[in-house]
Amino acid sequence: MTQTSLIPQSIISSDETSKQTIVSPYVDHIVSRIRKMELPGTEYLESYMRHKWRMNHRPSTLKGSFVATRDFLTFYHDLGKSQLKDIASDELEAFVESMQDRGLKVTTVRTRLKHLWAFLRFLIEQNVVDASILKHKIKIRVPDFLPRAIAPSDIRKLLGVIEETRDRALVLVLLRTGMRIGELLRVKMRDLDIRERKVHIYEGEKNCLGRVVYLSDDVVMALRLWLKQRDKTREYLFYGRSTLCYSSAWNIFQRYLRAAELQNKGYTMHSLRHYAEFRIMPSSDYKHGGSLTASDVLLGIIYSPLRKASVWSSGR
Predict the structure, then answer these.
(1) Where are the alpha helices (DSSP H) in the chain?
(2) Across 93-110, average pLDDT
(3) pLDDT value of residue 24
(4) What domains can be seen in the chain, in order of their start residue?
(5) How many whole angstroms separate alpha carbon 225 and alpha carbon 216?
(6) What is the pLDDT of residues 229-245, one digit of tens each?
(7) Considering all CA atoms of the chain, what is the largest pairwise distance in Å, rounded to the nearest integer?
(8) 109 and 142 in contact (C-beta within 8 Å)?
């Protein structure tokens, strides 16, 4: 219980009472939504939102905190987790990656992280999570987060442990085409033209432009094997028990990283796209400042001078 909540109602100023009267219905609305959610830690989220209301936070701040925390708890639940005490730093990093795959702007990701850190600090004060979770905060780079590309030798190790037909096809598509994981998980069967060896992406996540990505020989072979096994009544190219969500794909990727003993190298699903990015881009383009138009079309990227400089100077 906070110090504010211990103050008798009779001595609260008229201004404070007026503000609470205005904000209270909005808090009640948020609380009613929280109570309908079947997510881990909703009792702490409700307590946290009431705490922020007692601290006289604005409705816009309450809304931002609710949205950011709800999205994280949903992501955490989809990972198969049920106890907040088990939150780990790699899951926070995966959450950031999922927001970037959804095409959210850097400023939006930063704002949501700020709200999430505040909630985690509240949980630390309640002795729900360990304080070490905030020891190394995640820094979002401008203009884009540039993950580490997977080394060719590690690619061979990774592919060597993937025996599941669906998973091998999924990883190979990401690896060879440079598609974002969010784009691939939304691909429907009607978007795949296996005869013409291409996938139609009708709406890019970041730039709202359609494009076509082309498939290499090994991707076509992997997809043909998967098409023979998949349920032909399903709408999406890749699916699980229902639709395949980001957190499920993340779990799959992490499982194979552990099997290949690559779990400590900092690789993410973004690393697959980053590997494809540098295979697609001609070396003469980035060494001599040439046009990246063809590569932009294939990868669905709009490069600014700042983006180019950050990529090439990083040596990634």
Answers:
(1) 14-36, 42-54, 59-78, 89-101, 106-125, 152-160, 165-177, 181-185, 217-229, 246-259, 269-280, 283-288, 293-299, 305-314
(2) 81
(3) 65
(4) 4-134 (1.10.150), 152-314 (1.10.443.10)
(5) 14
(6) 999 999 999 998 888 88
(7) 76
(8) no
